[in-house]
Design goal:
single chain, 496 residues, alpha/beta, Amidase signature (AS) enzymes, eight-stranded mixed β-sheet, three-stranded mixed β-sheet, 16 helices, 40% helix, 12% strand, globular, glutaminyl-tRNA synthase (glutamine-hydrolyzing) activity, ligase, nucleotide-binding, ATP binding
Length: 496
């Protein structure tokens, strides 16, 4: 089997035993990127020279007899919203084109400390605002299953890189579904950890009370290994949880749902859901019952209001966070010819540097926060957020985890929803409640839709710091379905 087709866990073991070198593994993935990324466009920046140097450093440490972590020497693609001192960080925006940060994000630093080899930075919707990666200032990424379709968003470059075998692992961020939805539509695993379980320090902020770094992988165990590698308390992040990382790797190896109580969210079905998505979801519910889980229907009525609440809270926080891009300190500067005031330069720069979706959300958020409208819009949305959290709490008194489709449809064609923001926002219908509540949620592949042969995702939601439950259920589903399919779902993808 090609090195690019092996799991991250397998690669880590091969490198540690010196059956292959980390440099060989890195080169194989760099060759794969050179072969297919012209079609996929997963990467905004590839740093082959540094990646090979990182890999050689791992090989040297292993040769000296050092015992390294399970992912030492394994390549990873890094979402271009985490700061990297040795590579540009653009957040998919022209306003930061070419910017080289003076520091690493905590997630970046922990990847390096774990010995992972960073291949480069991946494409995303500008400032992580979108569900298709079409909002990137550098053009869209493409779904490896069908290059005419979206790979999800905002972390579409990260999901495409893993699904196209350009990297066994990648990082993403999930603000309203930006890890789980891309994972679902590309047939891979994507996890949103508990909010505060992974550090936001050095993550270019979109919505600070929602943004959550998390892993992408081609299987549940690899995702757990990566989450364990970069998670944990960080004094540099005031919202970081000072608690041990949940036992996610142990749970991923357990892969057993016998005796678990699983709730099917009543509100996540019906109109707007693709029949093939619901068919695969219902089959997976039957599978969980056959594996010994007790499955019941659970109603969470306020989930119906999650989408409008989110699209008041997130733009409000975006309006505040993006005020720092003012042409005064770093990044793009337009019109500074000595004749214009600072206010004029700022206005010209923001007009030229921000794309349409970012401008739309800044304006929405500024309006929602304005005098006379704050209580009617932002204040009310926060009350709805509280009610959603209460619905989750009530549900978790009845069941151990909740499940739903990850997204109502499979990957849609590039351009199909570009001029219809509401249709685009509906891609995150099932994922947004977990962001508003701050709890854990994962997407794992559960089959292909009959209509188009494209991947469908199963979403598993768990309470705050119940991340291990997501991995336990996800691994059980993955094992049972792989046995049924004769291998991972991704093995059924058309070869690039």
């Amino acid at each position: 089997m090609s090195l690019t087709r092996k799991t991250a866990a397998e690669l880590g073991e091969l490198i540690a035993s010196r059956e292959v070198s980390a440099e060989q593994v890195a080169q194989a993935h760099l060759d794969r990127i050179a072969e297919v990324d012209g079609k996929v466009t997963a990467f905004l920046h590839v740093d082959a020279e540094r990646a090979l140097a990182q890999a050689r450093a791992v090989d040297e440490r292993i040769a000296k007899g050092e015992r390294l972590g399970p992912l030492a020497g394994v390549p990873i693609a890094h979402k271009d919203v985490f700061t990297t001192a040795d590579m540009p960080t653009t957040a998919g925006s022209k306003i930061l084109e070419g910017w080289r940060p003076p520091y690493d994000a905590t997630v970046t630093r922990r990847l390096r400390e774990a010995g992972l080899v960073i291949l480069g930075k991946t494409n995303l919707d500008e400032f992580a605002m979108g569900s298709s990666t079409e909002n990137s200032a550098y053009g869209p990424s493409h779904n490896p299953w069908d290059l005419t379709r979206i790979p999800g968003g905002s972390s579409g470059g990260s999901s495409a890189a893993v699904a196209a075998y350009e990297a066994p692992l990648s990082t993403g961020t999930d603000t309203g579904g930006s890890i789980r939805q891309p994972a679902a539509v590309t047939g891979i695993v994507g996890m949103k950890p508990t909010y505060g379980g992974s550090s936001r320090y050095g993550l270019i902020a979109f919505a600070s009370s929602l943004d959550t770094p998390g892993p992408f992988a081609r299987n549940v165990l690899d995702a757990a290994l990566l989450q364990e590698a970069f998670s944990g308390h960080d004094q540099l992040d005031s919202t970081s949880i000072d608690a041990p990382v949940p036992p996610v790797v142990e749970a991923a190896r357990q892969a057993d749902v016998a005796g678990l109580r699983i709730g099917v969210v009543k509100e996540f079905a019906g109109d707007g859901y693709q029949p093939g998505v619901l068919a695969r979801f219902n089959e997976t519910v039957e599978l969980l019952e056959s594996l010994g889980a007790k499955v019941v229907e659970v109603s969470c009525p306020t989930f119906a209001y999650a989408l409008p609440a989110y699209y008041l809270i997130a733009p409000s926080e975006c309006s505040s966070n993006l005020a720092r891009f003012d042409a005064m300190r770093y990044g793009l500067r337009v019109g500074d010819d000595g004749t214009r005031s600072a206010e004029e330069v700022m206005a010209l720069t923001r007009a030229a540097g921000f794309g349409p979706e970012v401008k739309r959300r800044i304006m929405l958020g500024t309006y929602a926060l304005s005098s006379g409208y704050y209580d009617a819009y932002y204040g009310q949305a926060q009350k709805v957020r509280t009610l959603i959290s209460r619905d989750f709490e009530a549900a978790y008194h009845q069941v151990d985890v909740l499940i739903s489709p990850t997204t109502p449809t499979t990957a849609f064609p590039i351009g199909e929803r570009a001029d219809d923001p509401m249709a685009m926002y509906l891609a995150d219908l099932c994922t947004i409640p977990s962001n508003l509540a701050g709890n854990a949620a994962i997407s794992v592949p559960c089959g292909l839709a009959d209509e188009d042969g494209l991947p469908v995702g199963l979403q598993i939601m768990a309470p705050v710091l119940g991340d291990d439950r997501c991995y336990r259920v996800g691994a059980a589903v993955e094992k049972a379905l792989n046995d049924r399919w004769g291998g991972p779902l991704l093995s059924q993808a058309p070869a690039l």
